[in-house]
Target: Oxidoreductase domain-containing protein
Amino acid sequence: MSEKKIRWGILGCANIAVRAVIPGTQKSETGVVAAIASRGIGKAQETAEKMGIPTAYGSYEELLADESIDAVYIPLPNHLHKEWTIKAAEAGKHVLCEKPAALNAEETREMAAACEKAGVIFAEAFMYRYHPRYQMIREIIASGEIGEVRGIHGAFTFNNAKDTGNVRYQQHMGGGSIYDVGVYPISAARFILGQEPEAATVHGFFSPEHDGVDMMASGLLEFPNSVALTFDCGMWAAGRNVLEILGTDGRIEVPSAFVTNGSERDHFIVHAKGESREVQVPYLNQYALQADAIGRSVLYGEPMPFGPQDAVNGMRVVDACLTSARERRRIEL
Model:
């Protein structure tokens, strides 16, 4: 374990930060959470005391001015990602930005360029990709056990529709189910296949009760070699968090595909040759692994598993999905 630690600052007291990212980063080998900021000092102090964070700031600017902070995590609403990523980069901070990276690919390019100019890391917070089980899945596919991949299906849904004041249901803030949870199966298919889709067709349910954001979406992404991802995502539907990879000779079933439970549900199942076997995976904190990937890159120069261009490419796909859903047509990428 390294004696030197990356000192993290948290820009905002969002639920995802308090519930998952801060505790995970505190469990990491390479980092400590040294400061947190909010738009008012009261909220920042309350969260700092609750989470055992030594320093609280009443503005994001104050935290960025703290020269002892090496990296920041940005869990702000989607429409603020670009502004605060660029400001953090200009302040010399490495950036872990909550997904989706921004509102569109162009914003993401600007963020990546600002971080490159400042010589800092830019990472999009898809924590699940840092868990070793996805590398295990890729290795099983590469081994030929399930044959040639014919298709992938992913679903990520939950029901929080009664909370109409939630930022997820504010159009100008980048609300909607594709931004919030659809990005997970989209990124998983890109990662598993190691390719970018060629076209997107998505049908969306846009709710007038929720500022017109997509509360449910069902989509088809066309990948090279006639492979497709079918997915659905929703914020007004029963909860699901699953992925299936279908091959010519078998399939892989991932019951807790994106949000893990620290239980047997984290394992995945391989169905092949008329038999099924459960592949056990280690119970690891995905958020700690994510922080450590950045920490090792900063401390030891290890390459990041997912660079800024991956975030740009992912947002190009999200752009196409949103355009398809709104205009009800197939979008070529």
In short: The radius of gyration is 20 Å. Residues 308-327 form the longest helix (20 residues). Residues 132-283+315-332 form a domain with the Dihydrodipicolinate Reductase; domain 2 fold (CATH 3.30.360.10).
